[in-house]
């Protein structure tokens, strides 16, 4: 009996060994382990075995069965792998073929620059607010300490609707609107569209954008202005950016300054981009003029503040190296797609 | 403002610094240097030579051979210059030297031109004689230079000397940007005063002493100011025995460096004083002044006047004129008249130094289209004290330069002057504003340098009259900051109450709009807020359309930019058209920008500025693509209710059969559609264009960022498909409304899956198929639930004239 089993096993293993297809394996399984299989036939012959030997023989039959099953399974896995390998090989693709894109649209470079600026100031606790684009002379000029006869008020520079109303020439009007709300302290930035009577060319547009900043609180100092804007410049142009404050003049701030940043192209060594100076002019700023505070109902002996104004297009042109301002308003898709 | 550094140094004699140091330091104290240029740039090894002998070149008709004495030797130079003769003293660049430019006077090469010894047509030449152009200048600055050929020095030029020095070119010219508040710095003395304070060196202004001839000016001239509101001071002095001649070389050099062409001693003196003191002056030939009387008064509307540039100017009643007893002789502060012009025959000169009303001069100059150096200075509003100093300085120069005699005294018609500003000195408050700890003594030192006086008895600072910009403590703080150093002020961050950073809700919704538009393939464009009134015709809007009631700009850049837009479509169509014209395919753009709707005319309150979310596209996609974008956006901003599309939108610029109002929550919040073919043609677009416009103020009110989890359905859904034959005029929207109305609580969703018109369907009908899904939240639906709901729906549909297909 034992020999018989050994013989069946040997025969089966040999057949498994030599088979090359999954259905062949199945055939072997049926031939040996199936209802009419050889091993089953052996089990059927158990009745001829002496009763005391039956458990032992049964054990042997089972062992043989398990061994054949194990080898069959191994062979099956091996063959499946071969088949899988072959299939995958036939499925190789050219990974360098073009991507299937979802054709997502592109944000205007002005907006990208604006969102960066907003992110920086919101992070510093500023609120983003808006002011009217059509406003009165009072908010655009008078309340900002710009006297009646100031050249900025000339028709050459300002678009007028009538004697009272005009298109704002600066986002600074928002300073006044915010201060008049009477809620202190103020930490705000106000982005928006402004208008000046400039003919369209590579560096001018009659309509462009500014971002106004205003902080009013007790004990605000010029040192705070410097620290805040230096932080802003580093966030916007990179950790190594240096800033330089130069005295300047604006009617609504005193002391006033212009801020230059070290050229982010050459790092300050001087290049064509910064016209050899190593510095790029970025914004105007200053301590809010006491007349401006007073006119908006804030006591300058109790409160102080600083304000700044950044040209959004200037930032976008610099940061993205756009050489002609007209591109920003033509909306050519080949331009927009680059952002 | 351009000034030679040597002129500044004349008043700050101890100033020693490199050009770059000067530039940086001045800029940091507020006198911004825009540019500086050395006059001797690329001028190397150039000496004064004298031609001893000239011979003809044996092999070239146009060349000559010169023997030139350069001091220590005689060298041979071959030249083609037509204007030199033996004995002439000329600039000679030696072998290995450099000149700034070519003889044609074209743009100067960055590194100049190197000169080497060589042979010209076989004859040795050891240098080059220079024209004024080769020396980097021109005949405007050196009028004595010949039009073509070599510059010839005056006879007294020392042979062998540095020719660049002799020409006054060993100097640097600085160009400053002066801020409008610092009127005093539009003068050499003003800048020198700042330079002295910047470098902490003594400031030494000229000492004015006028030697008078003993006569009395009142015997020569009288002055009457009839319009003192426009002329707060009028100073007049007289000089006699005028001898016109060239001004001295030092004066010419300074004027040249300032970009002013030397003319003669009299003209040069007035220009020199204008630069030095920032006070424009005018010189009249007293013999042409009728009645020897000056009257300052307004012109009359319609008057005409010939200025000394021989142009006839139209005057008006807001222009101030200088007149004599009979006639007008000058436009105050702008330009003198042809009739009183100084000629070389002048004997007696009347000098005028006046203080005119700045804004009036600015506006007059603008109306005349005649902005002169003088008006540019007057328009800033001058210090009346300056007029007296300047006129005395001019007279001093007349006398010192031997140009004439000075008549004694000055006619001075002067309005009461403003008191000097007095500002309380509060060092602690200044430090509090700056965030500094500058000592009281250091502050007083700074004030001293700036000639700001300190009155100890009242603890007040007194601003000098030329500093009209100093009015309050903040102004004083700026002076402290400038000379303490902006760069030395610490950098800190504001302390105090913390504030939450945020953007307004409206801006958050706009951000979402951008996100969705871009996700759907639309790129962001930006258009102007003003446009042409012609756009309404292009958009086929009827003559009585309320959109034509626009805000009009009184002084636009042109008709194309003259009205504030009341509709955003023109910008979108223009942008699409320019893309189409450039053959860009499949263009999708969006814009977030305001329209401006006036409440009334004339404008007495701010208009309604309404943010419009405008989408436009051509190429791939259709009406339903655009509709999809709208619904994606509504979804993203929590607008979950059913949006209704009403085809009766009535927009003349849209295809009549392909347009809809977008109605949400009973309110029309926008519209979408295919652009009318005629409108497309008006914009030269030969493609189908689809647009959508959402009115953001209405949208914002309907949005929410609140979200609630509604659970995932536990019980199975049951779907039923219905296939219908529908009269053509019944809209899908009507069928859907019926399904919603009658589906009951268990209605979950419905989906159009087929729509067909054609052969198998009878005339006037279309085939429409929907899949309707029912589900209950709390149980598995039974057949009865579904068939009941379906029956109601089908009954309703039949009421619309719809037949079920078997």
- Quick one: CATH superfamily of the largest domain in chain A? Bira Bifunctional Protein, Domain 2
- Which secondary-structure class do the elements of chain B indicate? alpha+beta
Strand content of chain B: 25-35%
Q: How far from one another are the termini of chain A?
A: 83 Å
CATH class of the largest domain in chain B: Alpha Beta
- According to CATH, the fold-level topology of the largest domain in chain A is BirA Bifunctional Protein, domain 2
Write down the Rg of chain B: 41 Å
**CATH-defined fold name of the largest domain in chain B:** Phenylalanyl-tRNA Synthetase, Chain B, domain 3
Query: How many structural domains are formed by the residues of chain A?
Result: 2
- CATH architecture identity of the largest domain in chain A: 2-Layer Sandwich
| Beta-strand percent range of chain A | 15-25%
Task: Specify the helix fraction band of chain A.
Answer: 40-55%
Portion of residues within helices of chain B: 25-40%
Spatial order of the strands forming the largest sheet of chain B:
29-32-33-37-36-35-34
Mean pLDDT of chain B: 94
What does this structure look like?
The complex is a heterodimer of chains A (339) and B (806). By secondary structure, chain A is an alpha+beta fold. Chain A contains 12 helices and 9 strands. Chain A has 2 domains: 2-90; 109-336, 2-Layer Sandwich (BirA Bifunctional Protein, domain 2). In chain A, 41% of the residues lie in helices and 19% in strands. In chain A, strands 1-4-5-9-8-7-6 form a 7-stranded mixed sheet, with helices on both faces. In chain A, a hairpin with a 2-residue loop joins strand 6 (243-250) and strand 7 (253-262). Chain B has 806 residues and is an alpha+beta fold. The longest helix of chain B has 17 residues, at 384-400. The model of chain B has no long low-confidence stretch (mean pLDDT 94). Chains A and B meet through helix 5, strand 1, strand 2, strand 4 and strand 5 of A and helix 7, helix 10, helix 12, strand 28 and helix 13 of B. Strand 1 (127-128) of chain A pairs parallel with strand 28 of chain B.
């Amino acid at each position: 009996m034992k020999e018989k089993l050994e013989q069946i096993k040997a025969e089966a293993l040999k057949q498994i060994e030599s088979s090359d297809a999954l259905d062949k394996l199945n055939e072997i399984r049926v031939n040996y382990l199936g209802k009419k299989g050889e091993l089953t036939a052996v089990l059927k012959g158990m009745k001829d075995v002496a009763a005391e030997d039956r458990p032992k023989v049964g054990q042997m039959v089972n062992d043989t069965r398990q061994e054949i099953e194990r080898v069959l399974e191994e062979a099956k896995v091996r063959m499946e792998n071969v088949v899988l390998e072959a299939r995958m090989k036939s499925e190789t693709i050219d990974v360098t073929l073009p991507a299937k894109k979802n054709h997502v649209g592109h944000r205007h470079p002005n907006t990208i620059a604006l969102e960066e600026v907003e992110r920086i100031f919101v992070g510093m606790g500023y609120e983003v607010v808006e002011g009217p684009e059509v406003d009165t002379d009072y908010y655009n000029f008078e309340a900002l300490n710009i006297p009646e006869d100031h050249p900025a008020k000339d028709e050459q520079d300002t678009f007028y609707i009538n004697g009272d109303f005009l298109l704002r020439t600066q986002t600074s009007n928002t300073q006044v609107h915010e201060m008049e709300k009477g809620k202190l302290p103020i930490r705000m930035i106000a982005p928006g569209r402004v208008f000046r009577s400039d003919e369209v060319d590579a560096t001018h547009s009659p309509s462009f954008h500014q971002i106004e900043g205003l902080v009013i609180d007790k004990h605000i100092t010029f040192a705070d202005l410097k620290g805040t804007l230096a932080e802003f410049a580093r966030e916007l142009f990179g950790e190594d950016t240096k800033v330089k404050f130069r005295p300047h003049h604006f009617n609504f701030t005193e002391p006033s300054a212009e801020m230059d940043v070290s050229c982010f192209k050459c790092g300050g060594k001087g290049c064509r981009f910064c016209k050899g100076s190593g510095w790029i002019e970025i914004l105007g700023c200053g301590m809010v003029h006491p007349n401006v505070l007073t006119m908006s109902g804030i006591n300058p002996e109790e409160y102080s503040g600083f304000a700044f104004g950044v040209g959004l297009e200037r930032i976008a042109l610099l940061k993205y190296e756009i050489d002609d301002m007209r591109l920003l308003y033509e909306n050519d898709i080949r331009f927009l797609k680059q952002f | 403002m351009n000034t030679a550094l040597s002129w500044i140094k004349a008043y700050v004699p101890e100033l020693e610094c490199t050009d770059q140091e000067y530039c940086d330091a001045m800029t940091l104290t507020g006198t911004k240097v825009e540019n500086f240029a050395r006059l001797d740039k690329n001028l190397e090894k150039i000496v004064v030579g004298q031609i001893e002998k000239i011979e003809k070149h044996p092999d070239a008709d146009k060349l000559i051979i010169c023997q030139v004495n350069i001091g220590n030797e005689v060298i041979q130079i071959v030249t083609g210059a037509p204007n030199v003769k033996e004995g002439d003293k000329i600039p000679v660049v030696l072998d290995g030297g450099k000149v700034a430019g070519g003889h044609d006077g074209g743009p100067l090469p960055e590194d100049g031109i190197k000169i080497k010894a060589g042979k010209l047509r076989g004859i040795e030449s050891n240098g080059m004689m220079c024209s004024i152009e080769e020396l980097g200048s021109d005949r405007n600055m050196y009028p004595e230079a010949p039009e073509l050929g070599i510059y010839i020095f005056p006879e007294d030029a020392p042979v062998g000397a540095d020719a660049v020095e002799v020409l006054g070119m060993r100097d640097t010219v600085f160009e400053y940007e002066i801020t409008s508040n610092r009127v005093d710095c539009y003068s050499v003395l003003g800048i020198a005063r700042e330079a002295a304070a910047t470098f902490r060196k003594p400031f030494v202004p000229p000492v004015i002493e006028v030697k008078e001839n003993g006569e009395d000016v009142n015997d020569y001239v009288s002055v009457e100011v009839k319009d003192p509101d426009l002329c707060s001071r009028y100073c007049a002095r007289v000089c006699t025995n005028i001898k016109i001649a060239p001004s001295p070389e030092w004066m010419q050099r300074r004027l040249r460096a300032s970009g002013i062409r030397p003319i003669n001693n009299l003209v040069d003196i007035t220009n020199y004083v204008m630069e030095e003191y920032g006070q424009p002056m005018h010189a009249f030939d007293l013999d042409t002044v009728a009645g020897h009387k000056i009257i300052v008064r307004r012109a009359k509307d319609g008057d005409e006047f010939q200025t000394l540039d021989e142009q006839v100017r139209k005057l008006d009643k807001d222009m101030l004129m200088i007149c004599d007893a009979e006639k007008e002789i000058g436009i105050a502060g702008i330009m003198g008249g042809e009739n009183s012009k100084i000629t070389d025959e002048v004997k007696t000169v009347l000098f005028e130094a006046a203080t005119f009303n700045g804004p009036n001069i600015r506006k007059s100059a603008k109306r005349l289209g005649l902005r002169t150096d003088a008006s540019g200075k007057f328009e800033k509003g001058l210090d009346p004290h300056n007029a007296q100093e300047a006129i005395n300085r001019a007279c001093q120069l007349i006398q010192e330069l031997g140009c004439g005699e000075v008549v004694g005294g000055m006619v001075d018609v002067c309005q009461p002057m403003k008191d000097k500003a007095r500002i309380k000195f509060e060092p602690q408050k200044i430090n509090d504003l700056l965030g500094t700890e500058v000592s009281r003594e250091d502050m007083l030192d700074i004030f001293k340098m700036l000639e700001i006086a300190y009155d100890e008895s009242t603890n007040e600072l007194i601003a000098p009259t030329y500093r009209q910009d100093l009015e309050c403590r903040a102004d004083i703080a700026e002076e402290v900051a400038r000379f303490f150093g902006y760069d030395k002020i610490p950098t800190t961050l504001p302390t105090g109450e913390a504030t939450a950073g945020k953007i307004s809700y409206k801006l958050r919704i706009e951000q979402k709009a951008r996100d969705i538009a871009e996700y759907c393939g639309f790129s962001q464009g930006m258009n102007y807020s003003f446009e042409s009134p012609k756009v309404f015709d292009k958009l086929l809007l009827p003559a009585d359309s309320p959109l034509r009631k626009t805000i009009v700009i009184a002084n636009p850049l042109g008709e194309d930019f003259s009205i504030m837009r009341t509709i955003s479509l023109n910008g979108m169509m223009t942008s699409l058209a320019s893309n189409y014209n450039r053959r860009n395919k499949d263009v999708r753009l969006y814009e977030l920008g305001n329209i401006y709707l006036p409440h009334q005319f004339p404008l007495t309150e701010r208009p309604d500025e309404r943010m419009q979310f405008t989408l436009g596209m051509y190429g791939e996609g259709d009406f339903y693509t655009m509709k999809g974008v709208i619904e994606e956006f509504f979804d993203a901003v929590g607008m979950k209710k059913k949006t209704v599309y009403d085809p009766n939108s009535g927009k003349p610029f849209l295809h009549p059969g392909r347009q809809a109002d977008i109605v949400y929550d009973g309110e029309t919040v926008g519209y979408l559609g295919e652009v009318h073919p005629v409108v497309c043609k008006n914009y030269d677009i030969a493609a189908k264009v689809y647009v959508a416009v959402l009115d953001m103020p209405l949208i914002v009110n309907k949005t929410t960022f609140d979200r609630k989890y509604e659970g995932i359905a536990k019980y199975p859904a049951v779907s039923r498909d219905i296939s219908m034959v529908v009269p053509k005029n019944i809209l899908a929207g009507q069928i859907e409304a019926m399904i919603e109305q009658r589906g009951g609580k268990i209605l979950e969703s419905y989906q159009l899956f087929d729509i067909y018109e054609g052969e198998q369907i009878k005339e006037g009908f279309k085939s429409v198929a929907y899949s309707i899904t029912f589900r209950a939240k709390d149980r598995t639906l039974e057949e009865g639930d579904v068939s009941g709901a379906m029956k109601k729906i089908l009954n309703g549909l039949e009421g619309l004239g719809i037949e079920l297909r078997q």
